[in-house]
Amino acid sequence: MQQFIKSLNKAKKVQEQQKSVRDMKIGEKGIICCLTDPEMSLKLLEMGCIPGEEVKLNSRAPLGDPITIIVNDYTLSLRLDEAATIKLK
Amino acid sequence: MSQVLAPPPASVPHTTTASSRKVAKIALIGNPNSGKSSLFNHLTGLNQKVGNFPGVTVDKKTGISQLTPSLKAQVIDLPGTYSLYPKSLDEKVIIDLLHDKKADSYPDALIITADAANLKRNLLLFTQLADLQIPAVLALNMMDVAEKHGVKIDLAELQQELGVPVIPVNGRTGSGLAALKILLSQELEAPKSTFFQIPEHLLVMVRQIRYYFELSNDYLAWHYAHQYHKLSFLSEDDKQYIGELVKQYGFQSQALQASETIDRYTRINGLLLDAMRVTKAENNEQFSNKLDQVLTHKVFGYLIFFGVLFMIFQAIFAWAAYPMDLIDTGVATLNAWIHTQADGPLVDLLTDGVLAGLGGVLIFIPQIALLFAFIAILEETGYMARVTFLMDKIMRKFGLNGKSVVPLISGVACAVPAIMATRTIDSWKDRMITIFVTPLMSCSARLPIYTIMIALVVPETYYLGFLSLQGLVLMSLYLIGFLAAIFSAALLKWVLKTKERSYFIMEFPTYKMPRWKNVGLTIVEKVKAFVFQAGKVILAISVILWVLSSYGPGNAMQQAEERATAELTTLDLNEADAEAHIGGQKLEASYAGQFGKFIEPAIRPLGYDWKIGIALLTSFAAREVFVGTISTIYSVGDSENISTVKEKLMAEKDANGQPFFTPARAFSLLIFYVFAMQCMSTLAVVYRETKGWKWPILQLLYMTGLAYGSAFLVFRLFS
């Protein structure tokens, strides 16, 4: 748990420059590093976006937002501002 | 595959037994899209009842299942959820039920549904439930899909690891159901395994809560510590007690929930290493992906979506018209027949009051059935998720949700089924906004008023040979309604404060064939809900309106009739017009007529007189009644014929001998009907959907206010 809080705090500092799911290209894969929004992270964790899991950007809506990602073998759709809270390693 | 595995040997003596009470209560719980509804439908068939969870707008679906020829059980369908930490108001009913052993519907056992193709994520909720130590069985759905994806599940191993009986079921065919029923008819034990260790430094606090509330296990107490402020059955003192403990121990709920979730996933990964084998590396969703390239395409995606919307619109606008006419003539014929058999005030109450009101309820059934047939198919196939995906960005700007599109467009046909369709919107705030603004869309009942008022004052001019001026006016009325809906939504987004945070994050399901049984049961459920819940209100109001327009103070009605009959000798009228003349005089003398005169001062600024006042009152039953009422009050015999009504209205003179229906008056009326709530059925259905009178009353006030203000402006502007 302590580790998780640390990762949250650390994430806050590097939040600006670190790459997130929002910045991925279609078809690109990455490894989830951490989740930066404490409240939303609970929802994301429950949906299977766990640090260390592989995530792939699957598609974007015609207007660019929302997007779909593949994580834990199934497809999730989420808005860009939500995707921005999933940082990559 | 569907073999029944023997339940694991008992190790914990159970306290609650299925047979110790008369009818065992079984709760169905699982992730969204895990086949929960199908299983509920298979277990209960048509023996379903929709009630309320106390205090929330969530439907509580219960049903009776015949487990064995001699044993019945009550099955409660809980809202789909990903975890026991609720993120929405809908999910909150789950902890209110499962965390309160004294609750009326506290279940004796749980059926936990899981999607075998997404087992890892589905097991998260399972492990939380198992730690609550409620007797349970795991119904493993969609094994065939999992196998197609190259996922092989060792059932015996899984059952061993999970510590509860595991039954493979198939929501489509219903296989495995017999085994599930047999198992449920026996006494189930509390799960053998636990999956989460409460951190040691917090165990003291958890135990304190556990003993204070006499809870059966630590994990339940742990949930009390996390969610005490959300549990509606706890008293303020109880909440304060936990609140102080939590503060004293520096209990960081959010971080602890996050690490609990990570711990659980680690544990699940470990146990699935033995119980699950994945042979194909890539998930085989090629078909869905290919289809998505077309259905969510920049151009085709929207074209197809608008095609689908157009078809839905056609169905509730045009196709539904046939059965609706049938119901209409059926009720009219029945009424006429009763009138030939008997006469008197009681017969009038039965026919013109009760039966007419009943007809007013039944008339909506075709539209509701058709709309929900479409919505159920959109949901079942997975297309609804794509609709949300396509429309979210646009709709979000106005405080709406991608899913608000379907109710809004359906509102152009009729607001009643449209408001019922907002069920698909998960976020409470988005749903309330959608419900609130949908009646502003011009529905088909406004069309008769639009047609007659436009015919009255807009000349039949054509621009460029084909652009009809009347058509343009009609179109702008629809546009005004749409803009009012959109901007009211934007306003509400800003006004409405909510504690609940709304997420968009959702599963993007693969395309599937619809399960027709579910489609059928959805239609039955929606029609039943409308007839029995909104129908009561509609019936009551229509009887009241009938009394108001059939009775007058003292013997005023009788005098009016005698006077009108006497006048007939001096007037040269045909039979229909003569009858209408008497009807008009009687209506003027009735309570409705009194009401019209009473509100005249209030509506005079809009250009209306007491006659229109009567029509405003009676058309509250349904807007199209407006035309019928003004036909009666202006003594038009043949109200079916628009040109007759039009001639009569054009001949109507004001006090100065000038035509009464000036463009200013007609436009003022048009704008009034664009915005005004004027529909008891909509109010009744909003009451049902929001489970209270707060929203319908706010809506009535807002829309009437908007209508009054705009009509006033229009009348000033044109006169």
TrEMBL record, chain B:
CDD domains: FeoB. PROSITE patterns: G_FEOB. The chain crosses the membrane at residues 299-322, 354-378, 398-420, 432-459, 471-496, 530-548, 666-687, 699-718. GTP binds at residues 30-37, 55-59, 77-80, 141-144. Mg(2+) binds at N41, T44, G45. InterPro entries: Fe2_transport_prot-B, Fe2_transport_prot_B_C, FeoB_GTPase, G_FEOB_dom, Gate_dom, GTP-bd, P-loop_NTPase. It is a multi-pass membrane protein. GO terms for molecular function: ferrous iron transmembrane transporter activity; GTP binding; metal ion binding. It holds the Pfam family FeoB_C. Residues 23-190 form the FeoB-type G domain. Keywords: Cell membrane, GTP-binding, Ion transport, Iron, Iron transport, Magnesium, Membrane, Metal-binding, Nucleotide-binding, Transmembrane, Transmembrane helix, Transport. GO terms for cellular component: plasma membrane. It comes from the Bacteria. It is found in: Cell inner membrane; Cell membrane. Its main location: membrane. Probable transporter of a GTP-driven Fe(2+) uptake system. Belongs to the TRAFAC class TrmE-Era-EngA-EngB-Septin-like GTPase superfamily. FeoB GTPase (TC 9.A.8) family. This is Ferrous iron transport protein B. It comes from Rufibacter glacialis.
